[in-house]
Amino acid sequence: MICTGCSCLCDDIEFENGKILNACEKGFRHISGYKERRAKNIVNGKEVDVDTAIDKALEILKSTKKAVIYGLDTSTVEAQRIAIKISEKLNCYIDDNSSFCLGEFVEAILKKEVPTSTLEEVRDKAYVILYWGTNPYHSLPRHMSKFTYYPRGSKRNRGYDEDRFLVVIDVRKSEVAKLAKKNARFIKVENDIELIESFLKAIEGKASKYDVAGILREMKRADFNVIFGGLGLKYGLKGNYSYLYNLIKKINEFTPLFFIPAGFHSNMRGFNETLFEEVRAINKFSFLEKKSSPSFAFSELVKNENVDVAMIVGTDPLSSLPYEVSRKLLDMKKIVIDPRETITAKIAEVSICSAFSGIETEGEMVRSDGIRVKLSPIDKSEIDDVYIFKKILEGL
Amino acid sequence: MPLTPMEIYKLLPKTNCKRCGEQTCMSFAFKLLNRDKKIDDCKPLFEEKKYEVQLKKLQELLKPLEKATETGLIVNSERCNGCGNCVVVCPVHVERDPRGAGIGKGPLIRDPIYRIENGKLVVLNVHACRRYGKNRILCIVCRENCPTDAISFLEG
Ligand code: SF4
Ligand code: SF4
Ligand code: SF4
Ligand code: SF4
Question: Are A108 and A229 in a shared domain?
């Protein structure tokens, strides 16, 4: 089975005598707990059947010219496609979590502004493996053991202590930073921009604030090196993405270096890629204005009261967004589609119980490195995102 | 805190009477830690009343030995998140399971030392561990690569 607990989409999950094998704890909870705390089909506080809830959702969507569809990062690519069609038909906004997660990194990759690779290539070939602003121990628990530092690769078969060089850059000594022992470096970073400047200086042989010349020397020894960029790096760049891409370009003048985002929602990259195929933008898109803009991010739309209806799929903004934004959610109509009961659903006009992608529904997701993975559910639910979205699309 | 022979030694009679079959109390302490001897083998500890308090303390000290596997391995499940580092990095797995654990996947062999069950590390076949048996090697590779110190060995 494929685990959809995070964007590693591990493909080796087995079952034996009622036990789930090989999944990490996060994956185990995800797979074993899918029957618990399920959402209910509710319209204005009353439990109804699913089709009544969908009809009510349709009525709300038809009644507005200012809707936003938001979330979709745990939906399959097939469901995402239909959701995009719905927003096209409604001429409305569409956005996902990537607008405050790693959307920009994925966009740069899709626009070919930065060289990238796959996790299998990393496993087989990578020498310097650099985690920058991410702690996969929590967000992508098996990333290091399944794909990067620990597995033996076809061209790297002597084990991590001889055939890999680990670099961890973070603001604190995270779990993963603790693993940077022999043949490894941990850099406690205060300022990511200054760190990039240090790399640039070291390339020219000049002294710099952070001592990174050794890392560059290691990179030169190999024909494959990789950076995994996380949220810490994104926020550290403060919008200056070109600094990072320029550094990667400079390093590529003397040794191959690839960049792969370390995003965690199981199919966030799928949303970015699916929307990109349709409209050449990866998130915060307005079908009315036919463009993407920072002001079309879900939190901005809500904060500035630019929408009065939100269809929220597989995410819980009331519990994740800051209060100044989330309190404005109270004043708008909400349709929540989720397999699990959420806090947002409790204040929504309509709540629809969907299915867990990959556990109860088949379809496709896109791993953090862009590899497409066919899901292999262990259960079946007739009512899933695709069913719900199709009915909505037909009804419009 | 790993247990040391010195801590055990301090609580033995320290008379080197040899009744346990060892030349010295110190070597008996080593054997206790390796589980080659049992505490009952030191007769004086039980026969002489003056050792009563020491004996109690020693029994308390050796309690973790019961929880530990035959290689002195203790897994603290609460700290384990099933990341699989230990499973993948184990040199025995690399050698015997090159297409499974060796390349990062769940073990494909029937009797791996470790595997992840229900999100936690489980010890399945301690006999295959390099720390096991007479010609043991004091391997610490799995412990070294656990990010949360969920793995420990009695001998440190
Ligand atoms: S790493 Fe992610 S995909 Fe793999 S088992 Fe854990 S939660 Fe599931
Ligand atoms: S029997 Fe007890 S006192 Fe005598 S040598 Fe052995 S350990 Fe020491
Ligand atoms: S001690 Fe060494 S051989 Fe034994 S399980 Fe750990 S890594 Fe494997
Ligand atoms: S390395 Fe540690 S946390 Fe990871 S599976 Fe092994 S014991 Fe658990």
Answer: yes
Cβ of B103 and A150 within 8 Å?
no
Q: Could you tell me if A93 and A109 lie in one domain?
A: no
Below-50 pLDDT ranges, chain A: none
The number of the ligand 1 atom at minimal distance from the alpha carbon of A26 is 7
Global confidence as pTM: 0.89
User: In chain A, what residues touch B83 (CB-CB under 8 Å)?
Assistant: 24, 137, 141-142, 144-145
In chain A, whose CA is at the least distance from the CA of B148? Answer: A175
Q: Distance between CA atoms of A244 and A185, rounded to whole angstroms?
A: 20
> B102 contacts in A (CB within 8 Å)?
151-152
Taking the CB of residue A241, how many other CB atoms lie within 10 A of it?
Answer: 18
Give the number of whichever ligand sits closest to the CA of residue B30. Answer: 2
CATH for A75? 3.40.50.740
ipTM value greater than 0.85: yes
Task: State the average pLDDT over residues B124-149.
Answer: 89
What are the tens digits of pLDDT across the range B93-110?
999 999 999 999 999 999
Answer yes or no: do A240 and A301 share one domain: no
Domain that holds residue A287: 38-100+266-395
Q: Do B103 and A14 touch (CB under 8 A)?
A: no
Q: How far is the CA of A27 from the centre of ligand 1 (A)?
A: 5
Residues B135-142: contacts with CB within 8 Å, 24+ apart? B136/B71, B139/B91, B141/B89, B141/B90, B141/B91, B142/B85, B142/B86, B142/B89, B142/B90, B142/B114
Q: Whose CA is nearest to atom 3 of ligand 1?
A: A9
pLDDT in tens, B132-142: 877 788 899 99
Helix (H, G, I), strand (E, B) or coil at A65: coil
Do residue B56 and residue B77 come from a single domain? no
B52 and B86, same structural domain? Answer: no
- Does pLDDT of B61 surpass 90? no
Residue B1 has pLDDT above 70, yes or no: no
